[in-house]
Design brief:
Layout (H helix, E strand, L loop, with lengths): L3 H10 L2 H6 L2 H10 L5 E14 L5 E10 L4 E7 L5 H9 L8 E4 L6 H9 L3 E6 L4 H12 L7 E8 L2 E11 L3 H5 L6 E11 L2 E11 L5 H11 L1 H13 L12 H18 L6
Parallel strand pairs: 1-4, 4-5
Antiparallel strand pairs: 1-2, 2-3, 5-9, 6-7, 7-8, 8-9
Helix pairs in contact: 1-10, 4-5
Length: about 280
């Protein structure tokens, strides 16, 4: 049986992108299950145990595209030198996006990302924050002109001693795509969230740039679906696979172990003999 050192040497040499591509049959099955309007969440996950002092203390990151409804990984790319944005663009280039909705955090709310999604026929719902200050300012102005009877959607959830309420609103961004040079910008979304727990109330307002004009309840569902990449992928990798505790640090070792973890989770979820 191969020794620990042999496995280590092999994984250090393998190209992680080629290794991920080697799971072609599994990937083809996953893509075949995707439907119109499915959410593809993009996010990076730091592998905390991979920090290597010999490489200046660099910690590795893997950026994944995740099919939220299916709870399966579509593609994963290592972020070279911590470059999550570049890795995300590479991930998007590996996926057929036509008819799908891409979700991502505010780092990816930029012209390069929307241009890539647009070119591949997808829609997008991107978190909008101060890194796009001018766009955010105009979004707030649009919501400031709402009629009292403007359509909204409300969602309430209770459990574990807390109650959460989310109210979604969508407004047109007519003319602002050209003004901001933000191709195919069609609307802004706003979700006002309130959490009550132990007698304390916390409120938060989140803003989104949208390439289409969804109904408010669709915005709620889309944003909710994005969190599957955190709750069903990243959390599972840490709890079940102990990814953050992995001590692989050299060469391609950390990236290849990360690829195997994601693909192992996909195979387990495709096996209907037990719920994963």
């Amino acid at each position: 049986m191969p020794s620990h050192d042999t496995f280590s040497a092999v994984f250090r040499m393998l190209d992680p992108k080629a290794l991920d591509a080697a799971f072609g049959r599994v990937l083809a099955e996953i893509v075949g299950l995707l439907g119109e309007g499915d959410v593809i969440a993009i996010d990076g996950k730091v592998m905390r145990g991979s920090r290597d002092r010999a490489e200046g203390g660099r910690t590795r990151m893997m950026v994944s595209a995740y099919a939220s409804r299916l709870r399966l990984t579509l593609a994963s790319v290592p972020a070279e030198n911590g470059g999550e944005l570049e890795a995300a663009l590479e991930v998007l280039g590996l996926i057929a996006l036509k008819g799908k909705v891409v979700t991502a955090d505010a780092l990816h709310c930029n012209r390069r990302t929307v241009a890539e999604i647009n070119a591949r026929g997808g829609d997008w719902c991107l978190s909008l924050k101060a890194n796009q200050d001018s766009l955010l300012s105009d979004a707030r102005s649009c919501f400031g002109r709402l009629a009292p009877d403007h359509l909204t959607a409300r969602q309430e959830e209770t459990g574990h001693g807390r109650r959460e309420t989310r109210t979604a609103t969508v407004v047109s961004a007519k003319g602002l795509a050209e003004h901001h040079d933000f191709p195919r910008l069609k609307a802004f979304g706003r979700i006002e969230a309130t959490r009550e727990s132990d007698g304390k109330v916390q409120s938060e307002t989140r803003w989104f740039a949208l390439s289409w004009m969804p109904a408010p309840e669709v915005l709620l569902a889309t944003v909710r679906a994005h969190w599957a990449i955190e709750n069903a992928l990243h959390w599972q990798l840490d709890v079940s696979f102990r990814e953050d505790a992995a001590r692989n640090r050299k060469d391609n070792g950390p990236d290849n172990i990360a690829v195997l973890g994601r693909r192992a989770l996909d195979v387990a979820r495709r096996d209907g003999s037990d719920e994963c």
